[in-house]
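ok so i was messing around last nite and threw this chain in just to see what happens. nothing serious, just curious
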Amino acid sequence: MTKSDIRRYLARHPRVWRCLYAFVTIVFMAYVSETVCLERNSHSTATDHNTTPKISESRSGLPWEHVCIIGNAEHASDAIRTHHMWNDKYPSFWLVWGEPLATPSEKLPQNIRLLQIERKTSWAEGIEFTLEQLRKHLDCEYIFTHDDDLEFFTSHDTNRDTLSSILSTMLLKYQPAVVGFPWSVGDTTVEGMMGLASKFKGREVVPLTGFDSGMVIYHKSIVNFFIPYTPRGEGGFHGHWSLCAHFLNLFGPNLLEGKALRMNTIKYSNLISFDNVPEDERSPTKISKSGLIVHAESRHPYEYHMNQPFRTFLANGMLNRQRRWGRDLTSADILWDVELPQRIFTDTRELKNDHAHHWSVDKWTVISKLVEFYDIHHPVLSKNKWIRESFTDNELTSFLRSRNNLGLDFSIVIHIFTLDRRESLEALWTSINEANKIKRKVSFHIHLDTAESDNNAPFFLYGQYLQSLESIHGPITISINSKKKGLRQSIMDAWTPVNSEEYAIFLEDDISVSRHFLEYSEQMIARYLSPRGSPGYSPRCIGVSLYNQKYDEVNDKDWSVSTGQFYSPYLLQQPQSWGAIYTADGWNDFRKWYLAQTPNFDPLIPSSLTNRWPKSRSWKKFMLRYMYTKGKVLLYPNFPGGVSLSTNRLEIGTNDRISGDQRTIMLERFQVPLLDLRDNLERNHPEMFGGSGAEFLKRTIRRENGKTFLDLTTQFIDRSFEYPFGNDSDSIKPLLPGSLLVPSLALPPMNQLKVFDVHYAPVKDIHSLVGNISPKSFDKCTLILQVDNNTSLETVHSTLLHYHEQPQLDSMVLAWNRNDGVPRFKAPDASKKALKKKIQYEFKIPIKAVKPTTLSPNIKFMVTEHAPTDCIILAHPSALISHDQLRFAISLFQGHFFNNIIGFAEDGLFHSFDSNSNSFKLERVAGTGVGISVVGLPRMVIHKKYLERYLRPSMAVARKIVDAESGCDVILMNLIVANETNMGPVIISSDGEPSIIDAKEESRCLDIFRRKVFTDRLPLKYTKSTFTAPKPQLKRSMKVMEYPDEITPSLKQLKYSDSK
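result:
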């Protein structure tokens, strides 16, 4: 077919011609332009201090260039203008995102390349894409990420002909790792940067601090540390526009120090920036659905809403949390200066012929510097391209193992708390010095609290004794309180960690430790706490107990758990005061939470007997509430036979004041044998022999230099185990090499350990412990008041006024058992959060009125859904409870008797059998309340769960009896509680007169329930617990009534000793 035939064919078939034309056009454009993704705003900094050549990526075979520019441009003209600004000297690759490409390639500068992609991309994606395209064509010594809205100029004049030559000269002279440029806004508005600008005024280059991320120069050997930009899912953060600036500002200066420079000889201004517009002239900002902030004066959104959370996430990986970084750096923080290379090139031609000898990042120097200031296992580094491409697993394994072998990965500080008890401390100190040494750094901090005594001579002698102490394990620091703090405050003030690789062991002077406690601590930290990047690791675990728990203090009963033949540890939502290791992160977070509480705050736990611990003395009570609120746990040992790494000698002190028979009971309950693996195992642990536990202990022994050591790692290695990693792109694979993570059969991964909640109940996993909950159900109570037709509205009003200022009340519910309508109450509406509004209410707490469709005496027990607390107060309008009695009743409920009915002696009845009528009868009780079995008026404190029991289908017959018989509702509630607890009510005695109760009606109800509901069985029990509410004290000067801070019954009354 000739050319003329082809032309005639195409003329007759125009569609074919158009398709052919389109195809050729597409092929041509594909040659001229390529795909791109881009993103906006980032800060980068980097410093390196090494002159070893050739860790830089080898691009042999590609043309070499000194500087290459990559960037995102809204218009092709913006890219071309920027290219010309650098005198067309530097090759540049641009993603054009704001318009189709129309400029013919022959009209473009020879060394510019415009790229395009149809899908919309972010600023960060675009920079990553242009870098990939650049590397396919050129080997660039430096990569210059460049915004398209910048106007660069020299500090001497505005002659742009000198820009490229000045930049090249400076790069040849200093050979930096990362270069930033003066950020004028920061120099004039940010305090730290203002000081640095003044200090370094007049210098051509200075150490890099805070800088803008839209214009950064990276050496090719380190660029992959910063690009692709972070975050990309690490910690749940995704940065597309401005968030990555924080990563650059943190790691640039701190990692590369003297090789991260700010070039003062070249400055810039933003052509498009809201900083150029006065604040009062700026257009209102817009907030997108994703939370991004959009300024009318800018072309891209800002991720301001994630700034602080991401900064916190980043800072959590810093070993020194008090270290300033980024724009907060001051002259006091810059402990380095600009670093010059060993060889300086005179021009780019010399460098081009010998660019292999240009300064380049040494990976070992960088990784060593990195682990000195940052946790290499932190998730923010989990996807770092430079680390993953620079090191093999074997290299990282060798590097980390060498640090571990030198004991450089973490340190332990042992805090000891004492109060002028030399014999106690000597026993503890002897057990410490008998312990085997470990390779990690160990130090001691002894805290001596001041005694309250007129004779201070023994105290000063004790201080001198402490100063004479020595230890084979490490140095000793002694702190003496000038004023008495008490145990709680001494412990809370003892440790403010600044290094996340520092772990603290807390020991009181009445503790003794096993000779293996340091080995165990070292192995537990290395296995579960320090490798934060390891699979199964959870920051919810804030420490490790040295004490082998054998008693459940929440439910007041013995405790044991089976964890298999290898006696692996378990996770328990309980703090430990008798010897424990705490993490820096966990302790800092706990102290932050603790300091945020009000002075009167009592850290209660729903349905826990730990509530009776005195808050004024017990720091452990606060940590228990913190762990419950935040979903935190401790790891507990589970050695056979209760063998432990620490034990309590239960000497008389701040929180233990027991003696005699009670002390014997407490020793049996809480004291445990200490682990001792010396050759006389059978003598040291006779309780173990004859069972599998003895064989387990024998396997833990490692002998070295004639000594016996505990070894739960290498002696139990499970080489068949493989860690499962997710395959999706967002899964966070830790940097820690798998060969360092081979689990021990005795120490499996944390996510395979058994988990128990705050009530010692097993849960599925650690994530089942829901964090950030508010245990409001025990902090306050809901008052329920039944209003009947015979109750006047004036009485209702005065009753509400009597109770509404009680600080322990959360809300009041009116069980409106009347024919008329419910009146409106001028009270806050909790559902609308009206408490925050500036409205004057007659009542201080919310009031909810509930009216049934059918009137019934049962209604007071049918308002469960309107009661947000576990603590329920049943009130009677004709018999008010005084504030001091109510306060005391609530404290009894919260601290100990949450399973009982708590009533008042004047409402009390006792039951007896009448042989004449062959039935039980109820009679009033005279005196203090001894012998009461029924609280006869609805004036009581009970648990919400009994309202739910009352409404069960099994109680349907009983509720019908209540509807038919007068005065039976309260009797039924007494029977329900007694039937479940097998206990009588708790009674508060007073000087008041007995209430007027028609015992005949109550007796009839009792007999009906016995026969028709409880099958001729009467579950009532007589009370064994009576208390007298404390008397308020009148302060003469102020004439106000004051009550004791803690009015929970004394330990003697409860026959209980608080363990801490």
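not much to say yet. The radius of gyration is 38 Å.
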